[in-house]
Amino acid sequence: MATRKLIINGKEVEADESITLLQACEQAGAEIPRFCYHERLSVAGNCRMCLVEWVGAPKPQPSCALQVKDIFPNKDGTPAKINTNSPVARKAREGVMEFLLINHPLDCPICDQGGECDLQDQALYYGRANFHRFVENKRAVEDKYMGPLIKTIMTRCIQCTRCVRFATEVAGVPDLGATGRGEDMEITTYLEKAFASELSGNVVDLCPVGALTSKPYAFNARPWELRKTLSIDVMDAQGCNIRVDTRGPQVLRILPRTNDDVNEEWISDKTRHACDGLVRQRLDKPYVRKNGKLRPASWAEAFAAIAARVKATKPEGMAAIVGDLAAAEEIKALKDLMLSLGAANLECRQDGARIGGAPRQGYLLNTTIRGLDSADVLLLIGSNPRWEAPVLNARIRKAWLNSSLRVANIGTPYDLTYPVEQLGGADALSAIAGGTHPFANVLKNAKRPMLILGPGALARPDGAAILNVAAKIAGDTGMIGPAGTAAEGGWIGFNVLHTAASRVAALDLGFIHGRDMAGILDGAQRGEIDFVYLLGADEFDMNKLGKAFVVYQGTHGDAGAHRADVILPGAAYTEKDGLYANFEGRVQAAERATFPPGEGKEDWAILRALSEVLGRKLPYDDRDALRRAIIADAPHFAKLGEVPAHQGADLSVWTNIGKAGPIDARLPLASPIADFYLTNPIARASATMAECSRIFVGGQSRMAAE
Amino acid sequence: MSYRRLAEQQPAAFAFRPEYEPKIAREIAKYPPGRQQSAVIALLWFGQEQEGWVTRPMIEDIARRLSMPYIRVLEVATFYTMFHLAPVGRHHLQVCTTTPCWLRGSDDVVAACKKHIAPTPKTVSADGLFSWEEVECLGACVNAPMLQIGKDFYEDLDGPTTEKLLEAFRAGKPPAPGPQKPGRKSSEPEGGALTLKDPQLYKGGYSRKTGT
Question: ipTM score here?
């Protein structure tokens, strides 16, 4: 790594030649104001706010666009002198700020960005107080339509083009652009079309002024009124790090937190805007079905109704199903309770994915999200990552942009924002495993090949066979081995992509026992299963539960609650402290931001209370004891934020994954997600998500139906 | 300048006439594979030549030809003022009003346009034949004031000659481009050359002897 000596503000530093002067100055401890520059976007160099003085240069230099390797030493051989706070640099910044403020409206009191506005802050610290020479009229710009999530007040725009670069580079949906020029330049979509990306909300965070603000959050709160809680997203299985902003009892908005291993600093629109679903359709008191109608009841009545039924049911007639949003705590509590009752049937795979059990590598995204950056060939099988994990899809796109990742797909083709070779249906998978398909050689010759099995591949009757074949391909084509850099035991290119946030934790804790999903539903219809406990499970056809007695513990009046005989109001993900394992197996902790509405309780506490009524008292009285019990079951739950180490090089592990069998080439290999915006009870209760679905998906699904 | 928007009334479709295809192929071939977007200005120019103005279907057709997002072509079309985003007359007059032309009386030319075409710029005359706009320096200051119609310069104008010019176009008999003042050839002085008339000049009479 070549370095170069610089003297920054009188301090001699050794700067890496590959970085920009702005980064070098920051490393040297200097603060450089900026508007257009952003670490994760290309360099535009058009705001000029980052001007610094290079002693000897005729003019101040834009530090974001100047590479360290381009800064030559002085004639006498001494290192170049850079000043970030000299009179020259200060005057330059003051001038830039004066120009920026010429056309910027003075509407901070009614601007939603107020209090967290880069322009406001930098005008305070780098502008000149009470000084302006511009007496003419200010420019006014028409507001644009950018979809249901982005509110535009374009007069405030300072044309930094961060949003345009984000749309083009990260989201891969080049809908935004800058038309006109000079003073009349305008940021717009093509002819007022909505910005059709699942990541569109991120431009609101990127916008350094109040030009793009959040439409659902408009005029709701000021940043200093909000309590910020660190949390983990459950809308998909990626475990994006989020910050939940609340005022009083209500979640007002959700923002991303930076975590380079997981979500960089992006989150999907569903993560960001489904939060209004947390106050709609909520279950706020227990209900018991009497004479065919659900009636409000007390906790004691609800528990008594359950206890009466449990007593009358044989253990093998009982089943429990974990939903997609559950945290590890309640999964563990429900498992312990059901097993103590002798119930034989536990299931966490509502979609019927044929996956789980040992070894753990068989159901994880082993390459890890960070490992994806160095992959060179990627084979997608029955997956639509753009809808199953939009932030992961942006990461795949980043790998394609930065290191020419080659992506191929088996199954239904989707527009993934990067080029994908289409290899065919399930028969192509068998051909690759047999070595007869040309792509088998591509995988073999690749340095770091990887494959991703999507839920569409696993939730088929022959899912176990597909899993088995995929593991065989992984073993045969060098996807498993000590080669590579991944710190976690070498390169592992075998990956499973989940969509349910609870799935990996439930599999880790062994929430699969006895009958599988199809078996439970079949048993319920035949009358063999007559007690079903749903822990927030809504994603299957409730009519298939037959005459079974259904207990629904959850948050929203969705499918499960409508079918239930007893409803126990639980807590949503923002209302409890919880552990979540993402699809890499990374365990992360979410903190409670608000309390559940009405009589709702934290889910593990409900199960603990119920266990006492049932005479099977669970052996933990507080969350710490429960977490200790979880860690005793699955020690990796103690290592928060880490991806557990794998024994990747041990090839024998990979022969035991799935079950060899015939693969039906006629079945579709398609993502099960029909509508990105409506995949869980919280999102379905959200008015914002309904609006997004109408605008972005409505037309598509109608077209597909025709 | 002002905000540039596509016209509200847009034609339903656009297709390049066959004679443009080889030209388009030649433009695209100028750039290495994968960089064909660089031909966007040339293609927009061809489109404007054919239709008179840049239409929405044209932008979309060009974007598809060059594998670009629509918005990228719109950006180019709105950036350059040479692209007309609304219909213009069959003869579009671009009147130079930059300082040299203005000093030499471009106000009279503009007044003639206002009187005989339309009171406002970029407005098509009632007969659909003409429209006019003010432009910045077209680089023919020595023959100021001047205006451009299509690819031709009409120079040495004043109010009456502009009116005569419009009459001629209306009659379908466009005059020869160049100075409209009788007796002037291109940018030579009126009434013929005034300097460099000494025949000696052309016989080497004043040249210093070389090779001493």
Answer: 0.88
